[in-house]
Design a protein that fits this description.
five-stranded mixed β-sheet; about 325 residues; globular; alpha/beta
Length: about 325
């Protein structure tokens, strides 16, 4: 007997590197789930990117015991990478609607999924620092705070890729004499088995070391910083400044600076809990947002997408508790 689609919800968390889809009952049970590759509409186009989602949705529906094509779900919540601007959210929502999964569709930037996964109610701020950096905030009355988060042209600094680029810049200048000495000039090329920054620059420029591997240098930067290198430490402290600037501005926009409010930190760089970064974050938040309650998000972001789906359909609190239990959060 096929799965009864009445009231069934669809939750999607699609990041740059992976996508998770969950089919949920209205009382918060996970009926089926599937995982697929990253979601990159700027690279492949909106239609092709959503084609990729469709394949994962089909597998999640099959895992839930459904037969044939997925039905019209009662509601779809899709938390999507690269939905950085309202116009991008609108274009993605239009494409999702076109698939016929549901007439009720909400699209959020994927950073909101991380925030919702980390808090018990839709109130607070999250800063995510993985390959890039982003910050969002929300309140139960529907107000949000966000930034374009599309790189230097929107004022962004940080993230694993950005920090690796900065480390390369300082190391190159240290080796050729334009900058101050730093152990980064030895440690960065050594990571790739090379003896000098010149050799690493050449290898990156000629493609012998793919540019995509630059993110591997971020842990090297933190290791050199922990050993006491002043240049590396300055970059770690600059990241702390950026995280606190984002979170304090978002709290201020939402009117949450003068009351206790969660500031959730996530993404591979922040979740690694580097002591020097954590210490500086604590110092700066104590100065600029002393009532902020800091937490770290370790739950899968698809949990946040699922909680949004329950929020958006008026599910009772016990449904959210049941979903959290499923994901061990």
């Amino acid at each position: 007997m096929g799965l009864n689609p009445n009231g069934v919800l669809l939750a999607v968390d699609a990041g740059n590197s992976k996508t998770d889809v969950a089919v949920l009952s209205p009382d918060g049970n996970v009926l089926g789930a599937a995982r697929g590759g990253g979601f990159q509409p700027p690279v492949v186009g909106v239609e092709t990117a959503v084609d990729g989602l469709a394949e994962i949705v089909d597998r999640a529906w099959e895992a839930a015991g459904g037969a044939g094509l997925p039905p019209a779900f009662a509601h779809v919540t899709a938390c999507l990478a690269n939905a950085d601007l309202p116009v991008e959210e609108a274009a993605l929502r239009t494409e999702v609607l076109r698939r016929g999964w549901s007439r009720s569709v909400r699209v959020h930037n994927d950073t909101f999924a991380i925030l919702r996964a980390g808090i018990d109610e839709p109130r607070g701020v999250a800063v995510v620092c993985g390959a890039g950096i982003n910050c969002v905030g929300m309140t139960p009355d529907g107000r949000t705070a966000r930034f374009p988060a599309i790189g230097k042209i929107s004022g962004d600094w940080g993230g694993g890729s950005g920090m690796a680029e900065e480390a390369l810049w300082y190391a190159a200048r240290a080796e050729d004499g334009r900058g101050e000495p730093t152990e980064l000039a030895r440690a960065l090329p050594a990571h790739f088995g090379l003896g000098t920054m010149y050799a690493l620059i050449e290898a990156l420029h000629l493609g012998r070391v793919p540019m995509e591997r630059r993110h591997e240098l971020t842990p090297v930067l933190f290791r050199v910083s922990a050993a006491g290198d002043p240049v590396a430490l300055s970059l770690v402290h600059r990241l702390a400044e950026e995280v606190v600037a984002l979170s304090s501005v978002a709290l201020g926009r939402l009117g949450l600076l003068d009351e206790e409010a969660p500031v959730m930190l996530g993404g591979s760089v922040l979740a690694a809990r580097h002591p020097q970064l954590d210490e500086r974050l604590g110092e700066l938040l104590a100065e600029r947002a002393p009532k902020a309650v800091v937490g770290f998000v370790t739950a899968p972001p698809v949990l946040g997408a699922g909680l949004f789906a329950l929020d958006e359909t008026g599910a009772p609190p016990e449904a959210a508790r049941r979903l959290r239990e499923h994901y061990g959060a």
